[in-house]
Amino acid sequence: DIIIMLIGVNDAWENYVPEQYPPLLRPVEPHIREIYRRFKAELPETQVLYLTPFMVDAVEEKLPYHKTLDEFRALLKNVALENGAKVLDLQEVFYEAQKTIEPKKLAIDGIHPTNLGHKVMADAIEKMIEFVETSKRGVVLKSHKKDALEGGMDD
Q: Is the distance from CB of 87 to CB of 74 less than 8 angstroms?
């Protein structure tokens, strides 16, 4: 079994525009760590694939948000890796996609993916998942691209 988890973009956004959103009452990191603790305790055989928050460069006014998001992504990636999760850096996936696809076609507001943006995400996830009928788990996470993936398993 695999848990595919994408959390954190709203938390990072709250840190970026506190005048629009009330600041977090508690730090995010302890809550993320608690999620991993519960996965390990309640689902010890389950693999976790953590998808990092991302922003597509579709809205020029939001581009400064990358600095805040990059710092937040680094924190979330480190916690994921410390807890044995595999990490797919969706920011890197979207940077690559934006080389050939107009950003607004991926996420009109830069945050919420369009159908095409979701397909880009799904394709990246699919490349990491290998269905193995002979495996006890049935599904094995594996590495494909070093630049967008961390903590992957060897084939």
A: no
CA distances from 55 to 42, 50, 87, 114, 139 (A): 32, 16, 17, 13, 29
Q: Greater confidence, 148 or 31?
A: 31
Can you say how many angstroms the Cα of residue 79 is from the centroid of all Cα atoms in its chain? Answer: 12
Global confidence as pTM: 0.79
Question: Widest CA span of the chain, in angstroms?
Answer: 53
The lowest-confidence range among 48-57, 81-90, 145-154 is 145-154
Burial group, residue 145, by CB count within 10 angstroms (0-12, 13-18, 19+): middle
Mean pLDDT in residue range 1-9: 87
